[in-house]
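QA checklist item 7 of 12: single-chain prediction sanity check.
[x] sequence parsed
[x] length recorded as 222
[x] structure emitted
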Amino acid sequence: MHPISRLPSEKELVQQARAGDGDAFECIMDRYQERVMRVVFSVLRDSMDAEEVTQDVFMTIFDKIDQFREEASFSTWIHRIAVNAALMRKRRERSMVDLPLEEILPDGDAESGPSANAEDWSTKVDDPVLRSEASAVIQEAIERLDDKYQTIFVLRDVEGLSTGETASILGLGIPAVKTRLHRARLFLRAELAGYFDRRLPTLPLSSWSPPTSSRLPLAAAG
């Protein structure tokens, strides 16, 4: 009887890839391809551009993996490369235009909690058809977020990175990340409350927690 082989750890894969092991690098790609695609798409919002940039990201990772110094986690390093590549593509193709905040976000103090009359709701739906429908509606709402809010929301609440990691990747201060994330959540709550009230009137309304990658398959293609 052959012993069950242990899957290599991320650290082992990085060490092997640095040594020129192509199989190890393929394993890294398998682990991170969907995550990189999600992050890139959150910036570009175009599936074809996102696919091209994702390929570029992994070429960069392949070329620079020997420069990874473990000062941050490997996932943070990869996410930083992905965000930078997406932003470079976006700057090259069109100028960045910031809409006035009031045009895309609900009223309210960004540092305060939800307003007293904001209704809570939950995405925990037992019916698989309704769950699929709700996931699609949530994804569409996420895609309506302004770029600087969507990227932070995807990194924090979809990819599950910490506030510190997100701040490091985007070159922002922690207060700015917290503020933008809060505004993104307020916007999504306002966008989605009507749908859940109308479509799921009997669903118990508990405190809403943002969709994470374990509950929401945020597709890269629209």
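[x] summary fact logged: The chain has nine helices and no strands.
[ ] second reviewer sign-off
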